[in-house]
C-alpha cells in the first residue's frame, strides 16, 4: 500500500515495509540512509547503504534505472532524502516507519533500537 507523504510541495509516495520488500524482490533498490553505527545495529541484507549526509556526494552510486525505496530509522530522514532524489528525477518512495516498522512486519530477526 502506498500513500503520499509530504514535505514541502512534492508528494512522495510512501510504501509499507512488506510492499517494499516485495518490490525489492522485483528489482527495486532499498536505499538505507542511516549512519554506520545504526546500520551495524540493524541491517537489511542487500540494501544500498549511503548515510543521508553523503547522498549528494555519492549520488552516482544510486541507480537511475530502478525504483528507489528510502529507509531510515522511523522515516523522517529517508523522506528528506526521497525529496532530494525526486528533485533529481529519481523514481522514489519512502518506506513508512523505517527499519523499526520493517523489523516488526518483515523480518523480526532485525533488532529494534532507540
Q: Short description, anyone?
A:
With 114 residues, the chain is of the alpha/beta class. It has four helices and six strands. Helices cover 31% and strands 21% of the residues.
The SSE string, one letter per element, is: EEHEHEEHEH
Count every helix, treating DSSP H or I runs of 4 or more residues as helices: 4
The major β-sheet equals: 6 strands, mixed
Mean pLDDT: 94
Principal-axis shape equals globular
Structural Rg: 13 Å
Tell me the strand percentage band. 15-25%
Q: Which residues sit in consecutive blocks of at least 5 with pLDDT less than 50?
A: none
Strand order of the largest sheet: 1-2-6-5-3-4
Q: State the helical fraction.
A: 25-40%
Total E-strand runs: 6
Backbone structural class: alpha/beta
Terminal CA distance reads 26 Å
How would you describe this protein?
The structure is a single chain. Helix content is 31%, strand content 21%. A 6-stranded mixed beta sheet has the order 1-2-6-5-3-4. The longest helix is centred in the C-terminal third of the chain and has 12 residues. The radius of gyration is 13 Å and the shape is globular.
Amino acid at each position: 500500500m502506498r500513500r503520499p507523504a509530504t514535505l514541502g510541495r512534492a508528494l512522495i509516495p510512501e510504501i509499507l515495509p512488506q510492499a517494499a520488500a516485495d518490490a525489492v524482490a522485483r528489482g527495486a533498490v532499498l536505499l538505507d540512509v542511516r549512519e554506520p553505527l545504526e546500520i551495524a545495529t540493524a541491517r537489511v541484507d542487500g540494501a544500498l547503504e549511503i548515510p543521508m549526509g553523503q547522498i549528494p556526494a555519492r549520488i552516482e552510486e544510486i541507480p537511475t534505472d530502478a525504483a528507489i525505496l528510502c529507509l531510515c530509522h522511523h522515516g523522517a530522514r529517508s523522506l528528506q532524502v526521497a525529496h532530494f532524489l525526486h528533485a533529481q528525477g529519481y523514481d522514489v518512495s519512502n518506506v513508512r516507519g523505517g527499519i523499526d516498522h520493517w523489523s516488526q512486519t518483515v523480518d523480526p530477526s532485525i533488532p529494534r533500537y532507540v
